Amino acid sequence: MDSNLAENNPTPVFVDAFRGSFTSMMRWHQLDDFWELLSEQADDNWYIYAVGELPPEETVNKDKLLTFIKEIDILLRQEHDEDYCGIVYADDKTTPSFVKIFDPNNLGVSCGFSDNPPLPGWILCKLQPVELETALNPPGNRRRWWKRLFN
């Protein structure tokens, strides 16, 4: 059985974690503090998942995680030209294991309520990721709709 599936539960553990409770780093100084904390806690047990790409099968080493944190911070500050951050969310601000980073160029409604919120651009997590677009919107739904419409 896939280690990412809970026994008697067909929903991947990763998807359950993705749908869990998250807190935003609303202000840039909060993001600075969060990156510092994450850098201090950095180890070789993190996956870096660029949503839309194939999910990684292996974790990155600490140096690659630190490089990613540095580079994503630069990108977010350059492309999210606001006096607030609000596009980085963590499952826990003090001992994070799952971080969602929304792409400043694809925000839609990333906070508040939406029937179809955008997916994050990147995810840092300690769980092995699954392909989110398929896991959240199984392609069979459209095929069943299409068949029902024309059969």
Characteristic key phrases:
5 helices, globular, single chain, 5-stranded antiparallel β-sheet
In total, the number of domains comes to: 1
Number of H/I helices: 5
Helix content: 25-40%
- Number of strand elements: 5
What is the spatial order of strands in the main beta sheet?
1-3-4-5-2
Largest sheet: 5 strands, antiparallel
Distance between the termini: 36 Å
Structural account:
The structure is a single chain. This protein has 151 residues and is α+β, with helices and mostly antiparallel strands. The protein has one domain (13-150). The chain is 36% helix and 11% strand. The protein is built from 5 helices and 5 strands; from the N terminus they run αβαβαβββαα. It has helices spanning 13-18, 28-41, 62-79, 132-136, 140-150, and strands at 23-24, 47-50, 88-90, 98-101, 122-125. Strands 1-3-4-5-2 form a 5-stranded antiparallel β-sheet, with no helix packed on it. A hairpin with a 7-residue loop joins β3 and β4 (98-101). The longest helix is centred in the middle third of the chain and has 18 residues, at 62-79. The chain is globular and about 55 Å long. The termini are far apart. Mean pLDDT is 83; it is low at 5-10 and 109-113.
Summarize the structure.
By secondary structure, the protein is an alpha+beta fold.
